[in-house]
Specification:
Layout (H helix, E strand, L loop, with lengths): L11 H11 L5 H8 L3 H13 L3 E6 L2 E6 L15 H12 L17
Antiparallel strand pairs: 1-2
Helix pairs in contact: 1-2, 1-3, 2-3
Length: 112
Amino acid sequence: MPDERSWTFLTNHAHVLFAVYCDQDLRQRQIAEQVGITEGAVQRILSELENDGYVERVKVGRCNSYRVVPDQPLRPQLESCQTVGWLLASLEAQNTGPLGPVFGAGGPSSRG
């Protein structure tokens, strides 16, 4: 039987974005644990998402907090008719729907 975690339909960028959407106070370490990637990968992804306008970084004391910019169009052009907000709301509905949470039992549970 193939490893069920060998690939996913959503990219790590989408997983990080969804984690931030669900709880904007998560630390990079927590995001890394939920997504199953390194903290360095989370840092790189957040930087790319910020540079392209999908998240905004807010300084909270010595820590960073991230806010999703929901009206940004999806990428690539094939998907650009929908927004990031539409995707995240769809995932959030699935997260609380009858099929269970997107991230399993330890995943994002609150949205700020």
